[in-house]
Amino acid sequence: MEKGRTYFALSSVVLLVVLAISPLKDSFREWKWYQYEYNGLVSAMPQRIKPTDIGIKQVWARTLDRIDRCVTCHLGLKEKALAESKQPFRSHPRIYHDFEDFGCTICHEGQGPATSFMESVGKVKYWDKPIFPKEYMEASCGKCHKEARVLQAPILTLGRKLIEESNCVACHKLEGYSKQWVPGLDGIGSKVNRNWLVRWLKNPRGYFAKAKMPNFLLSDEDANLLADFLMTFKSFGSEAVLEPIPKKLTPASASDLEKLVELGSTRFREARCISCHPINGKGGYVATELGKVASKVSLQWLYNYLKNPKRLQPGVEMPRYRLKESELNAVTAYMQSEFIDYELEEVPPHAPDPAYHEKGLALFKKYNCSGCHELGGMKKAEEMGPELTSIGDKKLYEIDFGKDSIEHTLPLYLFTKLKDPRVFLATMKMPKYEFTDEESRAVAVALLGNTKELIPEELKVLPGPPSTYSPQGEFGKLVDDLACFGCHTMFGRGRLVATDLTLESSQAQGEWIKGYFRVPYSLRPILTERMPNLFLNDREIQVIVDYMEKVFIADSLEQHFENDQTRVTKGKILFYEKYGCQACHQLNLKGGYVGPALDKVGSRLKPGWIIHWLKDPQALNPESIEPNNKMADDEVEALTAFLMSLK
Amino acid sequence: MRTLVVACVLQILVGCSNNNKSTTSAKDTVRVVQDSGANALLPSLTYEERQGRHLYMKYCAVCHGTEGKGDGFNAFNLDPKPRDFTDSRYMSALSDARLLETISQGGRGVNKSVLMPSWGGRLTTIERTYVMAFIRLFGKPKN
Q1: Cβ-based contacts under 8 A for chains A and B
Q2: CATH number corresponding to A473-553
């Protein structure tokens, strides 16, 4: 009985202590210490900063329906004087969005309502979105900014560009990206050397350092099976038949061949093939490597392709050069004699597996080759890879991290997967894209922004509708035949390898454009991609210039301009001594390489264009790095007068 | 009693060592994955510096060089030569306000060579402070 009383007394005391602890515990919260520390910090500073009153604080972003209590401890977010101070008091870098409107977790992720450090930023059970690592932050920009180029988010922009170029949408469902053109495979059996094909299938980058085709990491056996399967497709889909090789292309005497090759070499250089095609790694990267092409394709195919590229390869962005029959022979002969792969060994005749067709077809289907390539009207396999439309919401328990012991977070998973797609499971089918670390991170950033997050429509920045511009008539035929859209943009359609032509005739004088087609030259000496000489005839050039002067022109940019000597003199002084234009532009062989040379610019540009350009260069070309000097009107006129006097 | 204590201590030790082992291996892989890139510098930059880096590479590096040494490919054509931002004695004497003024108004605005253009019309105020934040990195000793 006595013992029982003692136990009772003891347990009462314990109960009392426990009861006392629970309210006490509340007054020792982590965030309170931070707030006391903050008040101590700011009172010791020379600047006057208002100390905080103790209590939980929160930002309620009404439009996004988020409540973030991060500001309970991050107290100096708006105090510039705390820019160098330690966390959690450091001021927030200056950005375009005010956190009082947007909150914190919409960009940073993490658990907004939490009031302890570990719970708000770290990995917590049932909370799948720990705070984003700094290098993946731009992923959040992608939640609202859906356009291809987000100026303030260069990593996101790079990632979106890579996703588009790598043709991820061939296998994955992903909104906002269009499918890339990839060469069809019909007729490949009449085109390439089987030996080359096996090596290409095993490692495309071994042939061409910037090959778009990823590495499927095929075994020798699989590569051979697939090659045997592909080599059976000898006829071109569009009912095109290869013309026989003309006799003149293979002259009997060595001296005739030498002459032919020499002419071919000249035309090859004049046509500036290396503007788009690299030769042993040097040159443009728009098109495929030519350095070893004679060992890749057959002579007959090469001759036919140069004669009319689109006939054998519909949709290809190679212009049909206006070469005469003799020149065509010469260029073909030159390429055949020059671009040989001496490392491609002759392999002994290969005995194909009896069931190569079935096995090859199975491989073709397994790796979803028809996702990119057309072949014999084959249908694309449905939902080959996982859907990526909301990959940013993927739960960690849904991810198989395999044996690889990386930290289990979504950004790191995507980064690692993109670096080495089969690292988590060797039997996966995703091919290797040879992304660098920076590129893998960029692609991961672009993917992480794909979430099902409910963003109010008014906050979304959507890309504009795709351009419907499609030139008709004779000009339209020329544009198609010369593959102008492969480099130039017109009314929002095409690539930006070369200039946007939408306002070309407001910019340049017709006579200059005509001369440019006859002898194209680079306005900027440092550019690698250069306008090829297409060997157009005068009538074709006239058609193009006539069309440009009707369509590629804006009346608002036309301006009558009378020149006089006093303004020219004043303009010259402004050019050299006030605005230092020679820092970037060459004139009389003196000056920088950054902008185009300005020799004879008075015979090239129209005065109205120069005036508008000097007032606001980015209004005419948003990508231009030309400074906007906010010049006064009389200065603009004087400079225009000076430039127009350079004829 | 003693055996109990020993058992407890042992258990704790074993538990700890197991824990340590697994975390180290996980971290190792993470480090290998993250450090292998040429761009290992990037994550260590602040937001402003990263934004500034992209702007600097687009607008400034042609003359001032990607390393900030005043040796961009266009520097060859310029006299006087572009400023070397790694010259820490000059740069530490240069106030933020003056640096920002030079970026905004160009050489002509601060009585220096007119070959330095004014970026006040092209870049917004925030963008110019980003560029400045990045330029300041060149003068700092690398660790």
Answers
A1: 102
A2: 1.10.760.10
